[in-house]
Amino acid sequence: MEGYGHEDTLFGYDLKKNNIEVLHIDNPLVHIGLESNSLFLIKTRESIRNLKSILNQNGYEKLLIEDIRLLVYYKFLRKTKFNILTSLLFRVSEKILVRNLLGKNPNLFVYDLFKLGYLCSLN
């Protein structure tokens, strides 16, 4: 994997493949400004490119789609061919989404739309 993101996804896949149970705990996190929102968006793009790369490898698709909510929506859009429309809408609205995410009051729903749109826009 290159860049940031989803190495933990592959680790989780190996654990699941070997029937090792993982206990997830509620561990909230507060962002205290250690990295800027713009750097966070750069890392988000890298992680989505890595996720797409994993998805394109044989044997990973079913597991990933089951475990990652973003991919559940992506699979639905791909199946219904709405991924093409989503990609187009993302390209048209990307600057508006980014402006919100880099602004004073970023919206998590906008962040979800950004991730889904960016994933659909990747070839």
Judged by helices, strands and strand pairing, the structural class is mainly alpha
Uncertain residue ranges:
none
From the spread of the alpha carbons, the general shape counts as globular
Strand elements, count: 0
Terminal Cα separation, in Å? 18 Å
Mean pLDDT across all residues, rounded?
89
Strand composition percent: under 5%
Instruction: Encode the helix/strand succession as letters.
Output: HHHHHH
Main β-sheet, in a few words?
none
Count of individual helical segments: 6
**How many whole angstroms does the radius of gyration measure?**
16 Å
| Helical percentage | 55-70%
Can you offer a commentary on this structure?
The chain contains six helices and no strands. It is mainly α and 123 residues long.
List keywords for this structure.
123 residues; mainly alpha
List the helices and strands and how they pair.
Elements: H1 7-17, H2 37-55, H3 61-67, H4 69-79, H5 82-102, H6 108-121
Helix pairs in contact: 3-4, 4-5, 4-6, 5-6
